[in-house]
Amino acid sequence: MNNPTAIIIGSGVAGMATAARLASQGYRVSVYEKNSYPGGKLSVFEQDGYRFDAGPSLFTQPQNLEELFSETGEDLKEFMQYKPVEIACQYFYENGKVLRAFTNREEFARELHEVTGEEPGALQRYLDDSGRLYEDVGQIFVNHSLHKTATWFNKRVIRALKTVQSGHLFSSLNQLNERYFSTPEARQLFNRYATYNGSNPYKAPGMLSLIPHLEQNLGTFYPIGGMISITNALHKLAEKKGARFYFNSPVERIIHHEGKIRGVVVNGENLTADLVVSNNDVYFTYKHLLNHSLKAGKVLKHERSSSALIFYWGIKQSLPRLHLHNIFFSNNYPQEFDHIFNKGELYTDPTVYINITSKMEKGHAPEGCENWFVMVNAPANTGQNWEELRSRARSQVIDKINRMLGIDIESLIETEQWLDPVLIEERTSSFRGSLYGTSSNDRMAAFARHANFTSYIKGLYFCGGSVHPGGGIPLCLKSARIVGNLIKNQSHGHTH
Hints:
496 residues; alpha/beta; 7-stranded mixed β-sheet; 5-stranded parallel β-sheet
């Protein structure tokens, strides 16, 4: 008997992980990618002796990778190495306070108390509850399809419903954080986690308080070689399992007939397959690959997540005060989110995130220099004048860093590159440049994300940041796992 065939559209993190899973389940897997490189947003570039990770810069939950590799019969260590980071992030406030969020909880509680006067027990309670919420509720949500009845008859669901309190669903993340913390600094720090899926802490549900668990309780890690090591490991794994990659090969259309998948069109050629998995933005998939405007329109009913404006700066000096991850907070957080989500604009005093991998690996920048990845949250692209927004944001970011660090950063920028929502959309087909598909600003948002399959075409599946369970590396790996399991359970009913 011939092995069944699977075609994967796009080689983002989820696409590569799905390719590895299906190949090890016995499928003949072909991956078609429009770019000349794998990884989607998780890519790298070099310029003037500086090396920059282009996209995601935070690595948490390495167990998702460990699990993928062991489930496909490999050892992650042979593909990549990583190490724990002691300080998850360093926070700078406009009032002059500087706070290090240690991954060691006791140290973090002590630091929070010394810097802000926050009562140490508050952090312990918050992180305990965050962990419990993730274990009881989050796990169901991220590991199972919410769109299969069996999920809801799981014993764990009954336990989950006991853990969820009305505050998790009916209060905003900010309201929940106000109940736990008395200082504005601690509240702002924990409100920031809404941005991990492109949402607004003043609207998104308190449920998002399970996100800090990943970074603070489970730890923050650094992949040796930078974030690109994750892309390289996934690509090598999928190839080792037998998946074949075709680059510079955009899929033009998905072929289906009488409610069943038939294959795809690439370069005007029909390629048949038993299964197709789209790792493309789900809106783009319906609109352009299936020509189904109605379904595409449904996806758009939900508010888009935020996007990002990123500057990559080669800095010809080393700044010992900064760590791997640094945040310079806005002085008026509610205003900043109001601008991004309600006005579709950048705020005049943006929160600035700076990631510097040369703190971990000297070779990422010339001797005595640093590679700065500088990011501000931005609205999704709805036709704003990005050239103007970008140049204004650049000077606001520079003013802010100068003010808060007491330096003249502009004179230290030796080389520069940037990325905005328009380019993000161009390179990754993420509709409007939204990094996470839909936002989670509505308490039912978790259920509003598109499922990992569609009943309208048998044999068509979806993985990646724009579908369940969401964006970011950990959730993209989870979506691949869900798709792998759905397909495995499906095929038990068939003979190969």
